[in-house]
User: Fold this.
Amino acid sequence: MDVPQDLISLERAAEEQRARLAGLDGEEFEAQQRAWQEAARAAQAAIADHAKVSGRPAEVIETAVKRAVRQAEEDPAE
Assistant:
């Protein structure tokens, strides 16, 4: 499946926000958690919109997006 770059970018942004939670606590954690949730909602909304337009199930698109993000993050030299 050809995954649109905008969906990959949104999912990657959500994952980056999630990763920033590590080591935080208190108000910093809560603020970062809100940022992560907002980014995740944006990614999910874009996936849902793409599903409506493409006629494909959102779950299939979400899986393809997550796979594309993981593959892009892997170092091919390893």
Observations:
- The longest helix spans residues 26-54.
- Helices lie at 5-19, 26-54, 58-73.
